[in-house]
Design brief:
Elements lengths: L4 E4 L9 H13 L5 E4 L13 H7 L8 E5 L14 H15 L3 E9 L4 H15 L4 E7 L2 H10 L4 E6 L12 E6 L2 H6 L1 H13 L5 E4 L4 H8 L2
Parallel strand pairs: 1-2, 1-8, 2-3, 3-4, 4-5, 5-6, 6-7, 7-8
Length: about 230
Protein backbone atom coordinates (compact mmCIF):
# COMPACT_ATOMS: atom_id res chain seq x y z
CA UNK A 1 0.00 0.00 0.00
CA UNK A 2 1.38 3.45 -0.92
CA UNK A 3 -0.81 6.22 0.50
CA UNK A 4 1.04 9.48 -0.16
CA UNK A 5 -0.25 11.62 2.71
CA UNK A 6 -1.67 10.60 6.07
CA UNK A 7 -3.55 13.08 8.25
CA UNK A 8 -2.12 13.09 11.78
CA UNK A 9 -4.39 14.15 14.63
CA UNK A 10 -1.95 14.85 17.47
CA UNK A 11 -3.64 18.22 18.12
CA UNK A 12 -7.27 17.35 17.41
CA UNK A 13 -9.34 18.67 20.30
CA UNK A 14 -6.60 21.10 21.29
CA UNK A 15 -5.58 23.35 18.37
CA UNK A 16 -8.67 22.65 16.27
CA UNK A 17 -12.20 21.47 16.92
CA UNK A 18 -14.58 18.88 15.53
CA UNK A 19 -16.04 21.31 12.99
CA UNK A 20 -12.59 22.49 11.88
CA UNK A 21 -11.48 18.89 11.45
CA UNK A 22 -14.56 18.12 9.33
CA UNK A 23 -13.69 21.00 7.02
CA UNK A 24 -10.07 19.91 6.68
CA UNK A 25 -10.93 16.26 6.16
CA UNK A 26 -13.36 17.16 3.38
CA UNK A 27 -10.54 18.97 1.58
CA UNK A 28 -8.13 16.11 2.30
CA UNK A 29 -10.42 13.46 0.81
CA UNK A 30 -11.38 15.68 -2.12
CA UNK A 31 -7.72 15.58 -3.16
CA UNK A 32 -7.46 11.81 -3.09
CA UNK A 33 -6.31 11.10 0.45
CA UNK A 34 -8.25 9.51 3.30
CA UNK A 35 -5.96 7.83 5.85
CA UNK A 36 -5.94 9.13 9.43
CA UNK A 37 -3.38 8.55 12.16
CA UNK A 38 -4.40 8.93 15.79
CA UNK A 39 -3.57 7.62 19.26
CA UNK A 40 -5.26 6.87 22.56
CA UNK A 41 -3.30 9.66 24.24
CA UNK A 42 -4.00 12.40 21.66
CA UNK A 43 -4.07 15.38 21.73
CA UNK A 44 -0.57 16.06 22.99
CA UNK A 45 -1.70 19.00 25.13
CA UNK A 46 -0.17 18.21 28.51
CA UNK A 47 -3.65 18.44 30.03
CA UNK A 48 -4.78 15.09 31.51
CA UNK A 49 -8.42 16.07 30.88
CA UNK A 50 -7.72 15.97 27.13
CA UNK A 51 -6.54 12.35 27.23
CA UNK A 52 -8.48 10.32 24.57
CA UNK A 53 -10.21 13.48 23.26
CA UNK A 54 -9.01 12.91 19.68
CA UNK A 55 -10.41 9.40 19.32
CA UNK A 56 -13.68 10.49 20.93
CA UNK A 57 -14.03 13.23 18.32
CA UNK A 58 -13.14 10.88 15.46
CA UNK A 59 -15.68 8.39 16.75
CA UNK A 60 -18.41 10.94 15.96
CA UNK A 61 -17.28 11.40 12.35
CA UNK A 62 -18.54 9.33 9.42
CA UNK A 63 -15.28 7.93 8.08
CA UNK A 64 -14.44 5.72 5.09
CA UNK A 65 -13.76 2.04 5.60
CA UNK A 66 -10.21 1.13 6.60
CA UNK A 67 -9.21 4.76 7.15
CA UNK A 68 -8.07 5.00 10.78
CA UNK A 69 -4.79 3.79 12.26
CA UNK A 70 -4.76 3.96 16.07
CA UNK A 71 -1.64 3.86 18.24
CA UNK A 72 -1.98 2.47 21.74
CA UNK A 73 0.31 2.19 24.75
CA UNK A 74 1.07 5.84 25.52
CA UNK A 75 -0.31 6.61 28.97
CA UNK A 76 0.13 10.39 29.14
CA UNK A 77 -0.30 13.28 26.73
CA UNK A 78 2.76 15.40 27.46
CA UNK A 79 4.78 13.93 24.59
CA UNK A 80 6.90 11.53 26.65
CA UNK A 81 7.56 7.80 26.14
CA UNK A 82 5.73 6.41 29.17
CA UNK A 83 3.46 3.50 28.30
CA UNK A 84 1.25 0.71 29.65
CA UNK A 85 1.65 -2.54 27.74
CA UNK A 86 0.55 -5.36 30.02
CA UNK A 87 -1.55 -8.02 28.29
CA UNK A 88 -4.81 -7.31 30.11
CA UNK A 89 -4.68 -3.60 29.33
CA UNK A 90 -3.80 -4.14 25.67
CA UNK A 91 -6.64 -6.59 25.11
CA UNK A 92 -9.05 -4.13 26.72
CA UNK A 93 -7.78 -1.22 24.59
CA UNK A 94 -7.83 -3.28 21.40
CA UNK A 95 -11.47 -4.19 22.00
CA UNK A 96 -12.32 -0.56 22.80
CA UNK A 97 -10.68 0.72 19.61
CA UNK A 98 -12.50 -1.88 17.51
CA UNK A 99 -15.80 -0.90 19.12
CA UNK A 100 -15.11 2.80 18.48
CA UNK A 101 -14.21 2.56 14.81
CA UNK A 102 -15.60 -0.74 13.54
CA UNK A 103 -15.34 -0.86 9.71
CA UNK A 104 -13.37 2.40 9.64
CA UNK A 105 -10.47 0.80 11.50
CA UNK A 106 -7.42 0.18 9.32
CA UNK A 107 -5.09 -0.98 12.03
CA UNK A 108 -3.69 -0.77 15.55
CA UNK A 109 -0.07 -0.14 16.47
CA UNK A 110 2.10 -0.02 19.58
CA UNK A 111 3.51 3.41 20.37
CA UNK A 112 6.36 3.53 22.90
CA UNK A 113 7.83 0.28 24.15
CA UNK A 114 10.98 0.83 26.20
CA UNK A 115 11.13 -2.65 27.69
CA UNK A 116 14.32 -4.68 27.63
CA UNK A 117 12.57 -7.92 28.58
CA UNK A 118 12.14 -9.92 25.35
CA UNK A 119 9.63 -12.27 26.96
CA UNK A 120 7.33 -9.34 27.73
CA UNK A 121 7.82 -7.96 24.23
CA UNK A 122 7.03 -11.38 22.75
CA UNK A 123 3.76 -11.50 24.66
CA UNK A 124 2.77 -8.12 23.20
CA UNK A 125 3.68 -9.27 19.70
CA UNK A 126 1.43 -12.30 19.99
CA UNK A 127 -1.43 -10.01 21.00
CA UNK A 128 -0.68 -7.94 17.89
CA UNK A 129 -0.94 -11.13 15.87
CA UNK A 130 -4.52 -11.54 17.12
CA UNK A 131 -5.26 -8.15 15.53
CA UNK A 132 -3.80 -9.33 12.22
CA UNK A 133 -6.12 -12.33 12.37
CA UNK A 134 -9.04 -9.88 12.31
CA UNK A 135 -7.84 -8.57 8.93
CA UNK A 136 -6.40 -5.44 10.51
CA UNK A 137 -2.94 -4.00 9.99
CA UNK A 138 -0.57 -3.78 12.94
CA UNK A 139 2.52 -1.68 13.49
CA UNK A 140 4.81 0.13 15.88
CA UNK A 141 6.85 3.23 16.59
CA UNK A 142 9.19 4.29 19.35
CA UNK A 143 10.23 0.79 20.44
CA UNK A 144 13.54 -0.26 21.98
CA UNK A 145 13.50 -3.84 20.70
CA UNK A 146 13.14 -2.81 17.05
CA UNK A 147 14.62 -6.06 15.73
CA UNK A 148 12.24 -8.21 17.76
CA UNK A 149 9.25 -6.35 16.32
CA UNK A 150 10.39 -6.48 12.70
CA UNK A 151 11.51 -10.13 12.85
CA UNK A 152 8.22 -11.26 14.33
CA UNK A 153 6.02 -9.25 11.98
CA UNK A 154 8.01 -10.18 8.88
CA UNK A 155 7.63 -13.84 9.81
CA UNK A 156 3.83 -13.46 9.67
CA UNK A 157 3.98 -12.39 6.00
CA UNK A 158 1.45 -9.59 6.44
CA UNK A 159 1.82 -5.86 5.99
CA UNK A 160 2.61 -3.71 9.01
CA UNK A 161 3.34 -0.04 9.70
CA UNK A 162 6.55 1.49 11.04
CA UNK A 163 6.55 5.20 11.81
CA UNK A 164 9.96 6.86 11.43
CA UNK A 165 11.23 10.35 12.19
CA UNK A 166 12.64 12.12 9.13
CA UNK A 167 16.05 12.29 10.83
CA UNK A 168 16.21 8.47 10.78
CA UNK A 169 15.74 8.26 7.01
CA UNK A 170 19.36 7.24 6.22
CA UNK A 171 19.02 4.08 8.33
CA UNK A 172 15.55 3.04 7.19
CA UNK A 173 15.30 -0.36 5.58
CA UNK A 174 12.30 -1.92 3.92
CA UNK A 175 10.94 -5.42 3.67
CA UNK A 176 8.24 -7.01 1.56
CA UNK A 177 5.77 -6.31 4.38
CA UNK A 178 6.75 -3.04 6.08
CA UNK A 179 4.99 0.24 5.29
CA UNK A 180 7.28 3.10 6.30
CA UNK A 181 5.43 6.25 7.32
CA UNK A 182 7.66 9.32 7.76
CA UNK A 183 6.95 12.17 10.15
CA UNK A 184 8.97 15.17 11.30
CA UNK A 185 8.68 17.60 8.38
CA UNK A 186 6.77 20.19 10.41
CA UNK A 187 9.77 22.18 11.67
CA UNK A 188 11.33 22.26 8.21
CA UNK A 189 7.99 23.36 6.78
CA UNK A 190 7.78 26.30 9.18
CA UNK A 191 11.16 27.51 7.93
CA UNK A 192 10.40 27.09 4.25
CA UNK A 193 7.26 25.49 2.77
CA UNK A 194 8.95 25.42 -0.66
CA UNK A 195 11.94 23.51 0.72
CA UNK A 196 9.61 21.16 2.58
CA UNK A 197 7.65 20.48 -0.62
CA UNK A 198 10.91 19.54 -2.31
CA UNK A 199 11.70 17.23 0.58
CA UNK A 200 8.22 15.68 0.38
CA UNK A 201 8.63 15.01 -3.34
CA UNK A 202 12.03 13.40 -2.79
CA UNK A 203 10.64 11.23 -0.01
CA UNK A 204 7.78 10.00 -2.17
CA UNK A 205 10.26 9.07 -4.89
CA UNK A 206 12.07 6.89 -2.33
CA UNK A 207 10.62 3.40 -2.65
CA UNK A 208 11.33 2.71 1.02
CA UNK A 209 8.79 5.39 1.95
CA UNK A 210 5.12 4.45 1.86
CA UNK A 211 3.66 7.74 3.08
CA UNK A 212 4.29 11.08 4.75
CA UNK A 213 2.51 11.79 8.00
CA UNK A 214 1.32 15.41 8.17
CA UNK A 215 -0.25 17.34 11.04
CA UNK A 216 -2.12 20.43 9.83
CA UNK A 217 -4.02 22.40 12.45
CA UNK A 218 -5.92 24.69 10.07
CA UNK A 219 -7.10 24.85 6.46
CA UNK A 220 -4.24 27.11 5.38
CA UNK A 221 -1.64 24.60 6.58
CA UNK A 222 -3.48 21.73 4.92
CA UNK A 223 -3.72 23.62 1.63
CA UNK A 224 0.02 24.26 1.84
CA UNK A 225 0.68 20.54 2.27
CA UNK A 226 -1.58 19.78 -0.68
CA UNK A 227 0.13 22.39 -2.82
CA UNK A 228 -3.03 24.46 -3.23
Amino acid sequence: MREQLIFGTAYLGMKYSYSEFIRMYEIFTKHGHYMLDTAINYPISGNPQDFTAAIKILREVSLPKKSVYVKVGGCQNKGGPESILNDTYLRFIFELVQEYFQDSLFGIGIHWDNRENLQQVSSTLHILESIQNLDLVTGFSGVKQFGAYTSFLNSRHRQYVIQHNLRDLPSIQSSDYSMNWIYGLAKERLKSPKLSNQTSNRLLEDRRVSAILIGPTNVAQLNDWLGL
